[in-house]
Write a structure and sequence with these properties.
The structure is a single chain. The chain is α/β, with parallel strands linked by helices. It folds into two domains: 3-12 and 23-483 and 821-827, Glycogen Phosphorylase B (Rossmann fold); 488-813, Glycogen Phosphorylase B (Rossmann fold, 3-Layer(aba) Sandwich). Helix content is 46%, strand content 14%. The strands form six sheets. Strands 1, 4, 7, 8, 11, 12, 13, 14, 17 and 18 form a ten-stranded mixed beta sheet that branches. The protein has a six-stranded parallel beta sheet with strand order 21-20-19-22-23-24, sandwiched between helices. The protein binds ligand 26V. Ligand 26V is lined by residues 139-142, 145, 291, 293-295, 297, 342, 380-381, 386, 455, 484, 674-678, 696. Residues 1-25 are annotated as: Disordered. It catalyses: [(1->4)-alpha-D-glucosyl](n) + phosphate = [(1->4)-alpha-D-glucosyl](n-1) + alpha-D-glucose 1-phosphate. Pfam families: Phosphorylase (PF00343). The modification N6-(pyridoxal phosphate)lysine is found at residue 682.
Length: 836
């Protein structure tokens, strides 16, 4: 990447403001709000109130609210340039933000002003907020975690820039056709996006392809130059990341690809006008769409282009545009830490080396010392197939200079390993960054990172012992754990206003930024009046959910009985099939007469899950859930006691409705496979009890809430290992539990597919013969745990007591705490005082 600037150098304003006043603060009262809203409508949208569309009104409202954050934002940006604080650059291919309007209103403390002001105009906030399309710029846990983290850093006044990609199309929209998943594009920008600020004048040029050449510099030293083949521009779009009522606003900077002016046509048919325009679409394809796979990397060229694209823009932006122009880069580690959110941004490591060595004239060792201090790596998976590797051929073709740099890092690293473990020849080979055919990005991240962390205790331990054991033997102090967290602003304060009010009434409002204070709720678990109010909150939330599902999808949802929720990406390791087998077994029990219908505890089973479009088995499972749901919901023999609801297109907005209504949280992955989970934390914080395996953060949730307030079942991780080692024989589990045989037989018989036995035969066959995730091995234990759930639910007072204790004891799972741990163990950054 060159340092050529399309716009003004170093991103500085064109000329200094004439007066000391850099900005004007908006009025924080109803009259001021109404005036500002009307101006936005009339002059921003160009319509009168009477002729305005819903979208006009939403956009005017969003811009009005946005003004309140902007003056703080400008102050924060000015300060960032002035002070010497260390900035956390959170590099992530995904930020799954969710809707912005409510969060902006909350952060700027405008709730009452907005309600009142809109009321005066005869408008309703709830109608306008429904108009917002959420930016679905992430697949699931990893992307949502990034969004929670930047929320917490802003709330803690820690300087942070989130860097990512402004995908034109976010995660696909899911619908069901005869129960099968259908994907449509997500044109989330179509109606206008009031939350972003494009800065084409600060576009960055990113190079690709070509060759490298060596030359002698004026001191006679051999240096390398990259002669790229083609380039694109990255245009930054800035988003405000407001802290909760603390006057701090950080920045999320998402990059959008644009063809360079005078597009470099070397590799195209130069001179052909039409081809040149086609080249433009070629360039702009880079940020066009989010890859919807979240576990099996496909090694696709476009994906590597995306990764390098956003990382090159971000490194360039920080070094050449955020830091002062005279900054001494030897001190870079004092001013920045680049946090690598999984391996997706790891190409930033050779990029920083390239910038320091080729562009800034550093010698190799000096540059490597700096680089190692500037990076840290978070791993988010345990599935070996999810670890990214790029073919050497592709890397060499797309990023020839980076491949050279990686090879040198690899050579020096292997020499270090050989010296540390003399005589062990296998070790350097196992640990190599460059393998026979591929570049192993997790190895590169581990070698380059000052720290490597997993996302829950068990995960970090398995990361050390199973995924990267050689590395942890070499550098034990490099490995650490930071258990994930979730932002209490969005997932409690905003999503569950009823519970929030009840909590605030009991213990005051301080919990919103100090979630450990939820502990003060513990005594209320023993207060029958409080418990009754807690139940009333759940009833209200269930009614709200039922209304939402009705109006969103025409789904009928009963509001009595256990609301049993399983929301997460569809993946075999998460074992949605185990949940289906439970439902099928209850159904089969009633239909066959084994269970009396009046003994079945009424339940609503709610699912939310997207399957990667190319993941056939996951799509089969979606088909099965819908087929079972259609049959169970329609069978009068069940007396309406069991209902399956599966609203399509689970996203952050829907999560905010489902989670507050939940009684039971399903966290049933095979032990040792779910790195952490974060839905588990959101549900527990909202007063759902967990039925879960000894996996990921479930372990820590259970330890905190207490065994008696958690339904544990299933194999432990070492038992899983043992079983797999001795040979898993699924059929033997089916034979040993007649309920399991009957449930599988019922599915295989075609009972849910109008008699067609072929539809799910592959799925059943897989469970019985090939399943790597041992669903059948945990079936009996799961059924037994569900019996415990029913028994517990039969005692409403005891259940509510447990639910209140779940809320009271889960303050640990705030992303504020997670950020504090990153700051202390990894980043060594400091909060700054924002002067307003
Ligand atoms: C991987 C890939 C690979 C192919 C291309 C697209 C793509 C996109 C995302 C991913 C990463 C998936 C990893 C992930 O989301 N892990 C989840 O991270 C959560 C936050 O740490 C954690 O709670 C979940 O347990 C973990 O599965």
């Amino acid at each position: 990447m060159t340092t050529t600037q399309v716009g003004s150098p170093s991103g500085a304003p064109a000329e200094p403001p004439r007066r000391g006043l850099g900005h004007v603060a908006p009025r924080h009262d109803v009259e001021g709000f109404v005036g500002s809203f009307m101006r936005e409508l009339n002059y921003g949208q160009g319509v009168s109130l009477t002729r305005s569309s819903l979208n006009d009104r939403y956009l005017a409202l969003a811009r009005t609210v946005r003004h309140h954050l902007q003056s703080r934002w400008m102050a924060a940006l000015a300060q960032q340039a002035d002070d010497q604080a260390k900035t956390v650059c959170y590099l992530s291919a995904e930020f799954l933000l969710g809707r912005q309007l409510d969060n902006a209103i909350l952060a700027s403390d405008l709730d009452d002003v907005v309600e009142e002001g809109l009321g005066q105009l005869g408008l309703s906030l709830s109608t306008l907020r429904a108009q917002e399309i959420e930016p679905g710029l992430g697949n699931g846990g990893l992307g949502r975690l990034a969004a929670c983290f930047i929320d917490s850093l802003a709330t803690m006044s820690v300087p942070c820039v989130g860097y990512g990609i402004r995908y034109e199309y976010g995660i696909f929209r899911q619908s069901f056709e005869d129960g099968w998943q259908r994907e449509d594009t997500d044109p989330w920008l179509a109606l206008g996006n009031p939350w972003e600020f494009p800065h084409p004048e600060h576009a960055v040029t990113v190079n690709f392809g070509g060759t490298t050449e060596h030359y002698e510099d004026e001191d006679g030293a051999t240096r390398t130059r990259w002669l790229p083949d083609w380039d694109v521009q990255g245009v930054p779009y800035n988003y405000m990341v407001p802290g909760f009522r603390n006057g701090r606003v950080n920045t999320l900077r998402l990059w959008s690809a644009k063809a360079t002016r005078g597009f470099n046509l070397n590799s195209f048919n130069a001179g052909d006008y039409v081809d040149a325009v086609r080249a433009e679409t070629f360039a702009e394809k880079i940020s066009m769409v989010l890859y919807p796979e979240d576990s099996t990397p496909q090694g696709k060229e476009l994906r590597l282009q995306q990764q390098y694209f956003f990382v090159a823009c971000s490194v360039h932006n920080f070094i050449n545009q955020v830091l002062p122009s005279d900054f001494d880069l030897h001190k870079l580690p004092d001013r920045v830490i680049f946090q690598l959110n999984d391996t997706h941004p790891v190409i930033a490591v050779p990029e920083l080396m390239r910038v320091l060595v080729d562009e800034k004239g550093f010698d190799w060792d000096e540059a490597w010392t700096i680089t190692q201090q500037c990076f840290a790596y978070t791993c988010h998976t345990l599935l070996p197939e999810a670890l990214e590797e790029w073919s050497i051929e592709l890397m060499g073709r797309l990023l020839p200079r980076h491949l050279e740099i990686i090879r040198r890092i690899d050579e020096e690293f292997r020499a270090e390993v050989a010296a540390a473990f003399p005589g062990d020849e296998a070790m350097p080979r196992r640990m190599a960054i460059v393998g026979d055919h591929t570049v192993r990005m997790a190895h590169l991240a581990t070698v380059a990172g000052s720290k490597v962390n997993g996302v829950a205790e068990l995960h970090s331990q398995l990361l050390r012992d199973k995924v990267l054991p050689d590395f942890s033997a070499l550098w034990p102090e490099k490995f650490t754990n930071v258990t994930n967290g979730v932002t209490p602003r969005r997932f409690l304060r905003l999503a569950n206003r009823n519970l929030s009010s009840l909590i605030t009434e009991a213990i005051g409002p301080g919990w919103v930024t100090d979630l450990d204070r939820l502990r003060e709720l513990e005594p209320f678990a023993d207060d029958p009046a409080f418990r009754e109010r807690f139940r009333e909150v759940k009833r209200l939330n269930k009614a709200t959910l039922a209304r939402t599902l009705q109006s969103r999808n025409g789904i009928e949802m009963p509001t009595t009985g256990i609301v049993d929720i399983m929301v997460k990406r569809l993946h075999e390791y998460k074992r949605q099939t185990l949940k289906v087998l439970h439902i099928v077994s209850l159904y089969e029990g009633v239909v066959s007469g084994r269970l009396a219908v009046e003994d079945v505890t009424p339940r609503v089973f709610a699912f939310g899950a997207k399957a990667a479009p190319g993941y056939a088995m996951a799509k089969q499972i979606i088909g099965l859930i819908n087929a079972v749901g259609a049959t169970v919901n329609a069978d009068p023999r069940l007396d309406g006691r069991l209902t399956v609801v599966f609203p399509p297109n689970y996203d952050v907005t829907l999560a905010e409705k489902l989670i507050p209504a939940a009684d039971l949280s399903e966290q049933i992955s095979l032990a040792g496979k779910e790195a952490s989970g974060t839905g588990n934390m959101k549900l527990a914080l909202n007063g759902a009890l967990t039925i879960g395996t000894d996996d990921g953060a479930n372990i820590e949730i259970r330890r905190l809430v207490g065994d008696e307030n958690f339904f544990l079942f299933g194999l432990l991780e070492p038992q899983v290992e043992e079983l797999l080692a001795k040979g898993y024989d699924p059929a033997s589990y089916a034979a040993a539990d007649p309920r399991l045989t009957s449930a599988l037989d019922l599915i295989a018989s075609g009972a849910f597919t109008g008699g067609d036995a072929s539809v799910f035969s592959g799925l059943v066959d897989n469970l019985l013969h090939h399943d790597r995730f041992l669903a059948l091995a945990d079936f009996s234990a799961y059924m037994e745990a569900q019996d415990r759930v029913d028994a517990a639910y039969a005692d409403p007072e005891g259940w509510t007591r447990s639910a209140v204790l779940n809320v009271a004891r889960c303050g640990f799972f705030s992303s504020d705490r997670a950020m504090r741990e990153y700051i202390d163990k990894i980043w060594h950054a400091q909060p700054v005082v924002t002067s307003l």
